[in-house]
């Protein structure tokens, strides 16, 4: 499985979740990059888009990570 991963980092959850920053425009950009890369891969290659959110919060030495597998689909 080939994973295209977008990482979003925040210091708090106050405004909106970090993963929410991967909006339609960002998804479109990621899909364009993925399509270009996939042109070089074997046809049977399975792939997906994941998003990882990283929060540093009050303890920068112990960030919190959340993985969202198959975060969005492209047509």
Task: Characterize the structure shown.
With 75 residues, the chain is of the alpha+beta class. It has one domain. It is 20% helix and 36% strand. The chain has one helix and three strands. The protein has one helix spanning 24-38, and strands at residues 2-10, 47-55, 64-72. The protein has a three-stranded mixed beta sheet with strand order 1-2-3. Strand 2 and strand 3 form a beta hairpin. The radius of gyration is 14 Å and the shape is elongated. The relative contact order is 0.30. The model has no long low-confidence stretch (mean pLDDT 90).
Tell me the number of helical segments per DSSP (H or I, 4 or more residues long). Answer: 1
Structural class: alpha+beta
- Give the overall average pLDDT: 90
Low confidence ranges: none
- What portion of residues is helical? 10-25%
Gyration radius from CA atoms, angstroms: 14 Å
**Helix/strand order:** EHEE
Spatial order of the strands in the main sheet? 1-2-3
Q: Give a short account of the largest sheet.
A: 3 strands, mixed
Beta percentage is 35-45%
State the shape: elongated
Tell me the count of domains: 1
Distance between the termini: 19 Å
Total number of strands: 3
List the helices and strands and how they pair.
Layout: E1 2-10, H1 24-38, E2 47-55, E3 64-72
In short:
The protein has one helix spanning 24-38; strands spanning 2-10, 47-55, 64-72. By secondary structure, it is an alpha+beta fold. β2 (47-55) and β3 form a beta hairpin.
């Amino acid at each position: 499985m080939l994973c295209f991963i977008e990482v979003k980092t925040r210091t708090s959850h106050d405004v909106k979740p970090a993963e929410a920053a991967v909006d339609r425009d960002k998804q479109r950009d990621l899909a364009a990059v993925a399509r270009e890369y996939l042109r070089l891969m074997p046809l049977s290659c399975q792939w997906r888009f994941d998003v990882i959110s990283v929060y540093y919060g009050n303890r920068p030495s112990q960030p919190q990570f959340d993985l969202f597998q198959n975060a969005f689909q492209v047509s």
